[in-house]
Every structure is written in C-alpha cells, then in structure tokens.
Amino acid sequence: MSTFLLILITGVGLGALYFLVASGLSLIYGLMGVLNFAHGSFLTIGAFTGLWVSTKVFPNPTTWTFIAAMIAGGIAAGLFALVMEQLVINRLYNRHIDQALVTVGVALVVAAVLGGWFGNDLRLLPTPLWFMKAVTIGDAIIPIDRFIYIGVAAILLTAMLSILKFTRIGLIIRAGVENRSMVSALGINVRLAFSTVFFIGGFAAGVGGVLISVFSYGVSPGMAGSWLIYGFIVVVVGGMGSLTGSAIAAMLIGITNQFANYYVTGLGDFVVVFILAAVLLTKPSGLLGKVSH
Predict the structure, then answer these.
(1) Is residue 272 part of a domain?
(2) Is 127 exposed, middle or buried (CB count within 10 Å of its CB: 0-12, 13-18, 19+)?
(3) Is there a domain that residue 288 lies in?
(4) pLDDT, tens digit, 9 for 90 and up, residues 136-191
C-alpha cells in the first residue's frame, strides 16, 4: 500500500508539471489557433530566470526567495511570450505552416543563446532545505516537493479559469475566439486580449520551468525537449482550448506513466502514446474539447 501511495502521489505531482507546460499551449492554440513550437523556450527562460534570482539576487535560499524565483521566472517567460507575439506571431495569424517554422526557429535561437551564455551543463537551482524532506502518509514516505508541484498547479488552474470566466478580458478573449470581426467592429481591442493570452501562457510555462528544474535536478538550455512533447500530448488528449481537460489529461498521463514505469522500465512512454492514439481514434476532439464542424 505504501508503494502504491508513493507512486500515485508522484504521478499526480508529475501530472501537475505536465499541466503547467500544457496549460499555455492549450490557451494559445485552443483559443487563438497558433502553433507555437517555441513554448519550450518559455519554460527554459523561466528556469534560467529562476536560477539567476536564486543564485545572484537571493543567494540564500528560503521559502520566500523560492517563491520570488517562481514569480520572476513566470514574468520573464510571460514578457518573452508577449514580445514574440507582438513581433512575430502578430503577422502570422491563420498561417499555420509559417507559425510552425518561425516558432521552431525561435526555439533554436533561444537554446543556442542560452547555451552560449551559460553553457550546456546542468546547473543546480538552489531550494529551501525543507524541499529535501518527506512526509509520512500511512506507511508511505512522500517527498514534500510533490505537494509543491500539485499546489502551484492547482493555484494557477484556478486563477486562469477565473480570469477567463469572471473578468472582462476573459469575456473579450472568449468572444474574440467565437467571432473576432464582430468584436472588433464594436471597438474592442481583440489584439490586446490575445496578447494577454500569450502572457498568461508564458507565465504558466515559466513557473513550470522553475519547478521542473527542481524535479529534474538542474537547469540547462535543452531541458524543455521531452516536456514540450508531453505538453502537446496532454493538450491533444484533454482537448484543444480546455484547461480543465488539460488538467485531467495531465493527471491521467502522469499517473499512468509512473505506474507503467514502476512495473516495466521504459513502458511509461509506450502507454502514454497508446492513450494518445486511443483518444485520437475514439474522440479526436479530446476528452473535453469541442467538436469542430
């Protein structure tokens, strides 16, 4: 029972990290139709910003300095996403092939620049000492960082859903997705609303980058590769544009991955691909995605 609980909570924690990566992808593609292969760069920029804050600004790690590193990482990634949207994506709406090519180019440039500045070796991100501790639940000893991932993901999910459902900017975003020309005709700045989506998506990825650095024991320019792939899988399984669907899919994939790898090393990736194929064959719109006509 203790092993089952450890694997379950670790899977939920892993799923929380997948959600932080996938939530921005879900918003940016699901609401705006932008194929953003530079999303992994948001994660990496957030991680390196968190590393800089933790080593240069606040060299003595505490709970508050780690929170500051997460917020700084999120803001830096969000601002980079905003700049990229304004300078590049702004001219490529409804041109999916061009979006894919340009954002892949941005990702390669960011990785090369960060590699040139910081090197390609893993660099440890300092964390508070209590991150290394564990809590006992029943007979299971659970590393405490798993609960941090889950808590941060839950907070960001709640915040993003609240923004979309209960704020004016969220109403404009949803209306602009449904009928952009009509909303623009009313004198509403839809472009500003879409830029906000980019910032929010980048912010979530930046925060995720800092936490992934803890989970992966280091920061490097190439750290986003496999996480971005899993992010896309989560978005497809959960349904384009559905944050709730992405959260459910992230939990499903994280838990399944951990249990499969526990019984057969390396089986987790195969099972995740099987889940992706099963969803695409039986419900192409995803678990909670809208059926397009």
Answers:
(1) no
(2) buried
(3) no
(4) 887 888 889 999 999 999 999 999 989 888 888 888 777 766 666 676 676 777 77
Listed as own residue / partner, the contacts of 107-116 with beta carbons closer than 8 Å and 24 or more positions apart are 107/37, 107/38, 107/40, 107/41, 110/38, 110/41, 110/44, 110/45, 110/221, 111/41, 111/44, 111/221, 111/222, 112/221, 114/44, 114/45, 114/48, 114/221, 115/221, 115/222
d(CA 23, CA 38): 14
Name the packing angle between helices 63-87 and 39-52 (round to 10°). 140
Cα 28 to Cα 128, 196, 240: the distances in Å are 33, 10, 9
Q: Would residue 271 count as lying in a domain?
A: no
Domain extent for 210: 2-228
Residue at 181 is within a domain: yes
